[in-house]
Amino acid sequence: MAPKQLVKTDFPFSATKWPVISAEHQSVILDLLCNLLEPLGLYRQAHVTPSKGRKTRKRERAPDAGPTKTDTDVAVDLCARPPVPEIKHHVLVGLKTVTRHLSELAERTVPSSEPPAQGSNAELRDEVDPARTRASHVSPREQHGVKSQSAPAGTETPSFDPLRPLSLVILPHPMPSSSLVYAHLPTLVYLSSRKPAASPTLLVTLPTSSESRLATTLHLPRVGSLGILDGAPGADGLVEYVRTHVAPVECTWIEEALRAEWRGVKTA
Question: Which intervals of the chain are annotated as region Disordered (predicted)?
C-alpha cells in the first residue's frame, strides 16, 4: 500500500539570513568584547553585592534579622565608591533589555498602517480632544522631563534623541532560528536599522560556551545577550573589526511583503 501523500504549506517569502562567522573571527571578537567589559565586571565584583534572591531579602526584613544599616551608613558607602565605568552607560545587558531597545528602534522604520487623516477630521479630533493638540507640540525633551531653555538668536539648538542606535548585538548562540528565545532577534536587528542613512546594526553570533566567559567577565550569573550602543567609548576597535569581517543581516522578505505582490503557495 502506497504511503499517503502529505502536503504542507511553507512561508512564501525569503527567510531571514544572518552571516556565518568563522571560529577564528569569533575568538577574536570574544577577546575584544571581554577586554571592553572587564572594567565593568571588576567594578561589580568590588562594589556591588550580588543578589541572594527574594527569600533571603524577606528573612533580612524579619524582626530577628539583626541591626540594619542606617541612611547615614548607606550614604557613606555610596560616597566611598569610585565612579562607575563609563562603558556601563553604553552597554545593554540581558535579552529583555536588548529586545525592548530594538523594538523601540524598529517602530521608527515600520510604515504606519493608519491612513492619513483628512483636514476636516483632524480639526474635529483636535476640537474634541484638546490634549491631543497640546501633546503634538511637546518636544521630546519635555516628554522626558527635560525643560527646554530659550536659545540665543543665531544659535542652533541641538536635537535630543534618548533612543540611540545599536552598533552590535551579541548573542551567545550560533543558530538563533533554532531557539525560540532568540528567533525574533535577527528580524528585529534588520528592522532597527532599516533607514538608508543609518549604519546597519550587526548581529554577532558566538558559540554557546562563550556565555560562561561573558558572565564571568561581567560578574553576573548569566548573560543572555549584549548590545553595544553607537559611540561607546573604547569600542572602536571591536566595532571596526566586526564591520570588516561580519556582513549585515539580510531580511528580503520584509521588502517583498511591503510590495504587496502575490507570491503563490509553496508546497512540499
Answer: 48-71, 106-159
